[in-house]
Amino acid sequence: MIQYKIDAKPVNAANTHIKDMSGVLKEIATTYKLLLEATEEQKAALSSPSIDAFRRELQQLLGQGVSMAQVISDYSEKLVVVSEQASKHLTAFEEHFSTALQKHTQNNSRLK
Asked: In degrees rounded to 5, what are phi and psi of residue 6?
């Protein structure tokens, strides 16, 4: 069974909140890239086996973080777009069904 639910005000509020975060979400990947560059600069100026190993691990995490931050930002934007469309369509469906059912009940009440 497929069920649909729409409560427009909370959906709109959540979408607004997600949209408000989109700039910050985009900055995360940029910040990770800048940190990655800074660790490369540091590497040229400071080297020891333990620091180098730790730095490599950090750089690996930053590389993964850049990719993940970009995916999260993209997914967040897509979720808002799709949920706005779904909200509009489900609201329109419900209005259509309500109107159709009201006409049906009005026709039946005339028969009495």
From this structure: -140, 125
pLDDT digits (tens, 9 = 90+) for 38-93: 999 999 999 999 999 999 999 999 999 999 999 999 999 999 999 999 989 888 88
Structural domain containing residue 36: 8-111
Which residues, 6 or more positions from 21, have their beta carbon under 8 angstroms from its beta carbon? Answer: 76
Tokens describing residue 2: 């497929």
CA dist 49 and 93 (Å) reads: 65
User: Which letter, b or e, does each residue of 14-24 get, where b requires 16 or more Cβ atoms within 10 Å of its Cβ?
Assistant: ebeeeeeeeee
Q: What is the CATH number of the domain that holds 82?
A: 1.10.287
| pTM, entire model | 0.76
Q: Is residue 2 part of a domain?
A: no
The count of residues in the chain is 112
